[in-house]
What we know:
This protein has 13 helices and 15 strands. By secondary structure, it is an alpha/beta fold. Bound molecules: pyridoxal-5'-phosphate.
Amino acid sequence: MKKVYLDFAATTFVSSEVLNEMLPCFNAVYGNSSSIHSFGRDAAAIVDRARDRVAASINAKNSNEIYFTSSGSEANTMAIKGIAHSYASKGKHIITSKIEHQSVLEACESLKLEGFEITYLPVDSNGLVSIPELLHQIRKDTILISIMSVNNEVGTIQNVKTIAKIAHEKNILFHTDAVQALGAVRIDVQDMEIDALSISAHKIYGPKGCGALYLKNGIKMEPLICGGNQERGKRGGTLNTPGIAGFGKAAEIAVRDLVVNQQKLRVIRQYFIDKVNENIEYVHINGDPHQKINGTVSMSFEMVEGESLLMLLDLEGVAVSTSSACTSNVLQPSHVLKAMNIPDELAQGTIRFSFGKSTSKADIDYAVEKLTEAVKKLRAISPITKAGRR
Length: 390
Ligand SMILES: *Cc1c(COP(=O)(O)O)cnc(C)c1O
């Protein structure tokens, strides 16, 4: 059976250039990068080079502003909790949005238990945070604003530079979850005035289990993981040399190939949307029509239940993602689509298609053929269809 992977926003394969960079770190160069002897120094040299590459990929002023973590989730948690704890004496109010990744939302929820107050900004129907609403919610005791650069479910790009500027005018720190942004849009932490930024290797053809936090020099952040003096005392734990080496290479390639990759993805995306529109009725595309990345398309199919659609596609070898999370047997529409005011019935018929470097037009042809059949099948048995929408 043909297999088509359209879930690159969930994770990517490790590219061969990245794999080659990693392989020696599993055996040939196995020292602990904290050790003083030559084995350790060899590992440290690899880590240093990777740190330089990651720093360059976001135009950090200094490589020592990069802190390697185990994931994007850890980087988000570490930034939000670490900054909150370090600046609590200044104030206990944090502003974020309703459409953030769970790691941001849950870090904020756990701070609430410690007496912090959190404002979750609403978004418009395209998933954009309202700037007037942000200005309205800023208080004297606001210490941190955290708004994601690119949403993982619908691909909307936020006005990060504007938001960071507003934060600084009010003497507030600004963090952004840029996990979906790296490789998709240009990131320049100096030009965009970003204080803290989270990224992850496995979304950019690097390995799983390796992320990084950029933290501008001079900003305080209590560590999340205690241990040795690794990462300048901000993150304990022996460094994951293979992962870090791979991340460095992946970050370098993501920026090197950004324009070419995005051009390719734009063509694939349009080809996909045109094919779907030719074959399937009652489809809605979610997200901002202009401020969006090319690799992700969120589509709502009327009179279709998303989980069933995902499973029918999986039977045909086509891998996609739903936005809804199935918790305790109750289908919960995604918090992102809910915040965008998409009606529950539509939200539950929503699929995220995400494309990558290896996605071909033949993949799209196959996927849309199977998608068309599956939607037809599900609509034939849908009670809503029978009730007479069509
Ligand atoms: C995937 C993702 C994360 C989490 O990164 P992990 O490395 O998988 O923990 C955080 N934020 C966004 C927007 C993501 O897409």
